[in-house]
Each structure stands twice: as structure tokens, then as C-alpha cells.
Amino acid sequence: MTTFAELLEQSARDRGEEDFLLFGAERISYAELDRRANRFANGLVALGIGPGDGVAIIMANSPTWLAAFFATQKLGAYAVPVNVALRGEGLAYVLTHSESQAIVADAESLPAVVAVRGNVPRARYLIVDGGAPALPSDALPVARLMAASDARPAAVAQPDTTAVLLYTSGTTGLPKAVVMRHGGFNFAGLAFFAQVAYRPGDILYTCLPLFHANALFLTTMQGLYGGFRVALSQRFSASRFWDDIRRYGVNSFNALGAMIPILLKQPPRPDDRDNPVRLVFSAATPAWAWEEFERRFDLTIWEGYGAVDGGGFMLFNLGNGPKGSMGLPPPGTEARVVDDDGAECPPGEVGELVFKVDDPAARRVTYLKNDEASNAKIRDGWFYTGDLARRDAEGFFYFADRKSDSIRYRGENISSFEVEKIVNQHPAVLESAAFGVPSELGEDDVMVVVVRRPGATLDPAELIAFCTERMARFMVPRYIDWRDEIPKTETHRVQKAVLKRAGVTATTWDREARPVRVAP
Looking at residue 16, what DSSP letter applies? Predict the structure, then answer.
């Protein structure tokens, strides 16, 4: 197969009425998902949607989300998965920028869509799923589309046309739309994981949003490709997580962001090890949490690195590297860590992670309507990721920070990721976010926003003393803010732009205003 539509159709032919999707009490077979996608596609055809048209999907995880997505692929149209947290100008920007001609929304997202629809003139159709109390007069219920024929629509996708627009998180500015083309997805990666990671009969689980590449490709498409069942949850809940895992009989799940540390800081239970999970694919699990998580929940963590705008380059630690490491590039792929001048950094020094480009055409990342950003990814034969890393003497790579999140203090580059990693080790801390705020002396001062564990108390001076014992003095935060929660995207990435805009406030603790004595 070469397209997502062909992947679903081949799976339906091969596995028919076998269960594929587990969602709450629903059990949906491969063939049934294919029929639902056909009905949705034929419903879109009746509206005049066809090849080259954009369909925005603004819904929480559900079987209807997947039916809408595969419907676009069958028609040669393109899907625009939209972050359900977007509101106002941010939502209007994505809908306008993507030139979406139809919007599929659920009842929860409908008010946000209605509020901006007047500023999105190209969106001719609004299709609503779920029990919204009152639909706009021109809105169409999903049920109307699903009443169409379940025969395969006649349209055929052209390989060089747009299949999916995946928007970056936009944590530091306007999100960029990564263009994926029909026939442009590399199924070889799915084949690799099907062979080395999973076993026949495995059940894969995701609570990450389907508008993100991890849930859509690494879990859903992986399940279709390898014949694995997929258990789908609407969102991440630390308190309900292991109950869901046991209910579905999950053998593997993917984790992003702070999921591992947050799960680790849940109160211990006698049945922590009594779960069916064998393998966790994670990103940026700190070394301090890695071994403890494996031991507490009786499973194995594998680490990986990649990005939807990463040119297909990846790093893997399949248990063959130090805990905390992203691992190594696949054989035949060369990766380096370089400074701002492009010179390779010595072991242990932080710089930008780059990959040697083997095929410029295949590795090119296309951002919709943004040639400048597209062209900047490859320079002098190297692919620049925009992420900071370091490499040890044995060649293993370690994530350091997003380049845009790095803090500059008195000539020192500070990794916000490293600051957070240490702060999060304090037993009273649930999670934290470190970032730079303008200093009166120029450059940045280090600020950290901290969420305490429920019921825990923590004095700022105690946290500063904890940090001083474990990090370089220039890394120790000057400012501390306590919050009940940290603003995040739906993929659990901290929205540091929001925190930076708030900056230092009247409630912020400043250690230079309140000197703290620490042991020498």
C-alpha cells in the first residue's frame, strides 16, 4: 500500500470483522471502520467535497474522528487535524491558513468554531457530531453524512497532492503547517516496529490526541499496518490511566512530555505491578524516573526521537543505550551536535542536533505558504532540527532543550529541560516549567513555575537549597511562582510563550530580594 486509504482498505480485506478499535464499550472492526469511512466520504461527495479540498477535524478522540480522516484520504482531499484547545484568533488562523472548505466539529468544540466562523469564509460546510443543544441553522449532523452508501467512492488520490496538513504546536509563535502528500508516508518505520517491538495479539493504547502525529501515526496506523488492536481514550488522566490499561488489556503505550514523571508521582498502589503492559515508547523520559518507573510498574521503556517536521530522521534507544539517552541513529544515518557556526561540538557540549542529508528531495520539509522556513531546514547538506542535544563519548545522544526554550544567563546557555528535570526530582513537586525572563543586567534570569503535589508543602528557600546542591549555580532559579496547573497544549507541551508573557508578577518569589543561605 502507498496511501492511508489503501492501508485501511487492505486491513479491512485481510482482517474483516476482527476487532480493531476499542473505545469505551465500543468494539469496531477493521471492516466496520472502512465502511464508516466510505459512508462519510460519500456524504462529503454529496456536498461537493472532492480531490484537493480541505476538511478540518476539530474533535476529541473518537471513532468518528477516524472515519472523517479516512474519508478525506479516500476522496483525494486533505485532512486538517486541529488542536481542540484552540480558540479565537488561533483557531481562525488555522482554519483560514489551511483553506479548509468543510469543518467537522463535536459538540464540545462547536462554540469555539461558531465564534470564529464569520472570519473563515472559505469554510462552506459545518458538520457536527454529538448532542449539541442547538445547531446553527446551516449546520449538518454527522448522522446525515453517515446515511450515505458504504460503497468505496470513485475518487482516487494523486500521489503528489496534499493528504494531511499537520500544524506544529505553536508554543512560541504561529503554528506552521507541515504538508504530507498522498503516497508520501514511509510505511517502512511501521514495519520495523511491527517486527521488533510488538507481538501477535498485542493491544496498543493511546490517550494522546489524534490531531498529533504520535497518536495518529505511531499508534493508529501502526495498529492497522501490523494487525494490532488499538485502545483509544479521549485524554490523559493520571488517576484513571492504569484502570484503562487493565480494562483494555493493553500491552504497549506511547508517552510524551511529563506523562512518565506525573504517573510516577501518583500515590503507590498495591497493584502497581499487576498490569499487562510490556513495553512503553517514550520521549524525553528523565534518567531519574526511567529505572524507577520500570521497577514500579514491571515494564520496559524504549526511548525515541523524531518530529513531524523532522525530515523522517530519528534516534532510538531500544534498551541498548544508557537510561535517559535518546539512543543512536539507525545504521546508515549520520547525526551530529553542532554549534552556531556549524562546527561539531565535543562530547558533553550542548549544541543543535543535525542529520546528514542523504536525499534532499525526500528529506525536504514543506511548510504550507512558508518557503523561508522550509528552505531553512536544510543547510550545507545537513538537516537542522531546531532541538538542542549533547553526545557522550560512546556516541549516544541526549535531549537538552528546544532551541527556542534555551535560557541565556551571563554568557551561559542554560537548558530549561535540565532545570525542570532537577526541580521535578523534589518529592513535593508534581511538575515544573523553567524559562527565561528579561534581566535588568541584560540577557535572562531563570524563572520556574512549580505545581506542588496534592497536599504537599514546599518553601521557596527549601527548593532553592535543593537546586543549589544539584545544579550549577548559574542554573539555580532566581524567580519561583506557585501554580495549580501549568498551561499546556493537548500534547502535553508546556506553553512557555504564555508563561513568558505573564513573567514576573506581584506574587513571584525572588531569591535576590530574599537572600537564602545555603551550605557551601
Answer: T
Distance, in Å, from the CA atom of 405 to the CA atom of 414, rounded to the nearest integer, reads: 9
CB count, 10 Å around CB of 21?
21
Q: Output the CA–CA distances (angstroms, integers) from residue 366 to 52, 104, 447, in the order listed.
A: 17, 25, 35
Strands 203-206 and 252-255, by their bridges, are parallel
> Which one-letter DSSP state was computed for residue 153?
P
So what's the pLDDT on residue 1?
59
124-156: per-residue pLDDT in tens? 999 999 776 778 888 999 999 999 999 999 887
Joined together, the cell numbers standing for residue 40 give: 462519510
Grid cell of 169 as nine digits? 504546536
Domains of the chain, CATH where assigned: 29-181 (3.40.50.980), 188-402 (3.40.50.12780), 406-510 (3.30.300.30)
d(CA 87, CA 43) in angstroms, rounded, equals 28
Q: Do the Cβ atoms of 205 and 61 come closer than 8 Å? A: no
Q: What is the dihedral of CA 340, 345, 349, 351, to 10 degrees?
A: 30
Q: How far apart are CA 153 and CA 74, in angstroms?
A: 7
% of the chain beyond a pLDDT of 70: 97
Distances (CA, A) of 2 to 68, 78, 265, 294: 19, 16, 43, 37
Gap between the Cα atoms of 388 and 364, Å rounded: 20
pLDDT (0 to 100) of residue 173? 59
Which of the four pLDDT bands, split at 50, 70 and 90, describes residue 518?
very low
Q: At what angle do helices 30-47 and 63-75 cross, to 10 degrees?
A: 60
Beta bridge partners, 252, equal 204, 279
Cα separation values, 272 from 285, 324, 476, Å: 19, 22, 35
Taking the C-alpha atoms of residue 296 and residue 317, their distance in angstroms, rounded to an integer, is: 20
What pLDDT, in 10s, does the model give residues 345-369?
A: 999 998 999 999 999 988 999 999 9
Rounded to an integer, the average pLDDT of 273-277 is 97
Continuous H helices in 439-517: 460-468, 496-502
Helices (H) and strands (E) in the chain, counts: 17, 26
How far does Cα 234 stand from its chain's mean position?
14
Phi first, then psi: give them for residue 278, nearest 5 degrees: -105, -40
Half-sphere exposure for 399 (CA within 13 Å, toward CB): 29
Tens digit of each residue's pLDDT (9 = 90 or more) over 307-331: 889 999 999 999 999 999 999 999 9
pLDDT digits (tens, 9 = 90+) for 168-197: 875 455 789 999 999 888 888 888 888 889
